[in-house]
Write a structure and sequence with these properties.
- The chain has 183 residues and is of the alpha+beta class.
- It has one domain: DNA methylase specificity domains (Adenine-n6-DNA-methyltransferase TaqI, Chain A, domain 2, Alpha-Beta Complex).
- 35% of the residues lie in helices and 23% in strands.
- The strands form four sheets. It has a four-stranded antiparallel sheet with strand order 2-10-7-8.
- Helix 3 crosses helix 6.
- The N and C termini lie far apart (48 Å).
- Pfam families: Methylase_S.
- InterPro entries: Restrct_endonuc_typeI_TRD, Restrct_endonuc_typeI_TRD_sf, Type-I_RS_S_subunit.
- It comes from Paratractidigestivibacter faecalis.
- This is Restriction endonuclease subunit S.
- Its EC number is 3.1.21.-.
Length: 183
């Protein structure tokens, strides 16, 4: 078991924070690709999906030269700060306001394990210690990449991610059942 900076656990970072269609010579669209912003990530889930803006195919190609893929991990840089989402879909997204997209180096790290580690109190302590700002707390990319990740052997990472994923699935199912019962 070892410890590594987050930057050594990923292949690349998609960072288009602050980018808007107007800055790319266009505008939001009525249909097309959804744009993920920090307000759409909460407690490991996609929220307020009806508020997500959309961009055309042409705008998507200009905005996202590196595409989002299943297994990528997203983390918000501010407002809200430190929210994490594991992307378990083949849907292509535009990463917009205040979201880093992390492409995990799967030779070193199980992407689902990394997602769970990034939700841990240990990782959030690292984030808070590296954050800046008083009114709006935020984190710059270089500081994010310095945060420490605890890395057991790859097969143990996968086992941990499997168990935690099963627990998450059961929680989701129970919430759905509770919703049906309430209705």
């Amino acid at each position: 078991m070892g410890y590594r900076p987050l930057g050594e656990c990923i292949e690349s970072v998609i960072d288009h924070r602050g980018l808007t269609p107007k800055k790319l010579g266009g505008n939001w669209a009525q249909s097309g690709y959804r744009a993920l912003s920090a307000k759409n990530i909460k407690n490991g889930a996609l929220v307020q999906e009806d508020s997500m803006n959309r961009v055309s195919n042409e705008m998507y190609r200009r905005w996202m030269p590196e595409e989002v893929e299943r297994g990528d991990v997203f983390i918000t840089s501010e407002a809200p700060f430190g929210e994490v989402l594991y992307w378990d879909s083949d849907e292509k997204l535009v990463l917009s306001q205040r979201v880093f997209g992390l492409k995990v180096n799967r030779d070193i790290c199980d992407s689902r394990y990394l997602y769970y580690w990034m939700q841990s109190p240990f990782f959030h302590g690292e984030l808070r210690g590296r954050a800046t700002g008083t009114t709006v707390v935020g984190l710059r990319q270089p500081e994010l990449l310095r945060c420490i990740v605890k890395l057991p052997a790859r097969d143990i990472q996968t086992a941990i991610a499997h168990v935690l994923g099963a627990i998450d699935s059961k929680i989701t199912l129970n919430k759905q059942i509770n919703g049906y019962l309430a209705a």
